[in-house]
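Q: Protein A?
A:
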Amino acid sequence: MECRLADLRCKEVINIHTGFRLGFVADVLFDVNSGQIVSLVVPGPFRFFGLFGRGEDYVVPWTCIKRVGDDIILIEQGDNYNRDRRRYKKW
């Protein structure tokens, strides 16, 4: 199965440990030297009906990804997610 980075943006991330739906992939972090994907970034949830922006982004390490399907990505991670302290901006 071949998958481009642009195709990852259309995939939904679901935690199989808790059944929690994180959302869709917004960004991919990869190591420039080795060319390997390090983690996926999923935008955080909306705050108060979207009036106050979003919460912190979910950063899912590549080691937690169990299966990449046609339309979803299954991860296995505990209740604590690595939340990124900085916001990713689109340029």
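Q: Protein B?
A:
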Amino acid sequence: MRLQPKSRLLFIGDSITDCGRARPVGNIRTESGLGNGYVSLVNAALASGYPDFGIKVLNTGVSGNTVLDLQYRWQRDVLALEPDWLSLMIGINDVWGNFSLLGSFSSKITEDVFLDTLSELIQQVKPNLQGLVLMTPYYLETNRQDPLRSMMDRFGKVVEQVAEGNNAIFVNTQAHFDRVMECVDPLDLADDRVHVNLTGHMILARAFLEGIGFNWERKPGEDIDGN
């Protein structure tokens, strides 16, 4: 696995990451903990599969956030927490804001603004990180010509571009959902095609764990050097 023992792993993003997590910083020792989504599932996997690593998971996701919202709170909710590893998933609300019928947003975020802002945030935190994971936004629609799905894919490509430019682990969440949607209806995962149920969060958790090289067959005490 890519994570090193005693790492501080911070997740940041929008409602998909938030999922009712504790304030001001979600962690396993607070009442609401890490929320009821994929972050909690990742923590459970790490705690059960790598108990000897002592990895500390934190969650600072905020429902409704765009990349511009992350920019506003980056110092408080990322830099000040001094993570060793950072996982970032953002972009769903950025895309939704371009479709006026789907919500009220103060401004439309273009792909260029998304790229520039995301790149700037990564540059601020990258020197202090051991590792970075960038997860794409997604939309549970099988028709790739659908306007919202098409734009979400383009924003996902921006995330991939930033990941490649920063030697980050790239997690294509849309591709993972696409494989599952070959077998199930998208509405079986999310009524609104975005806010997924527990099955959807397990898909996200598995995608993240695959990205970091999680070994499901590992026994505690093996590869303690983090390799």
